[in-house]
Amino acid sequence: MKKHLLMTACVMSLMGAVVQAQSCLDTEKLVKLDAEYENALRKGDVQFLDKLLAPEFQWVHNLASLKETKAQLLLRVQQPEEQPKARRAHDLSLQRLDKTGVLQGLSSVEKWNPDGKTFRTSRYQFMRTYVEHKGECKLLAVQTMKVWSSEAD
């Protein structure tokens, strides 16, 4: 009986480790998901963003100059002022607590200049809060702050 209980405890412990290891908040998986998010913003992929963003999603932009809900962001990416040449997140770190992950880093956004041959870059410090909900990661909140630009201000 004791052997049976011990074996059951070991199996349950291993199953818990496997379930935790399969979390969408694992660093490698979340970094990949976040890169897909950056690409979806660049391309205006409303279908991907609609699935990823939590219904309560909020994005606070530079110095609170703009606050966007999920609906507002989806509308904006459908009608962009200009489509970025590239978007890339880098210098990433992840903090996790239970079913919440906060990804911090820099996002470099390249946009074409009017000549169509050269581009300018803006760099933003960001914090993105992802929550695991019903086995899926949802992006709940974003805060960004512009920290550098190749443009002469």
Automatic annotation (TrEMBL):
Keyword Signal in record: yes
Alphabetically ordered keywords of this record: Signal
Keyword check for Signal: yes
Pfam family of the protein (one): DUF4440
Domain DUF4440, residue spans: 31-139
Gene3D superfamilies: 3.10.450.50
Signal sequence extent: 1-21
Protein's UniProt name: DUF4440 domain-containing protein
The organism of origin for this protein: Cellvibrio fibrivorans
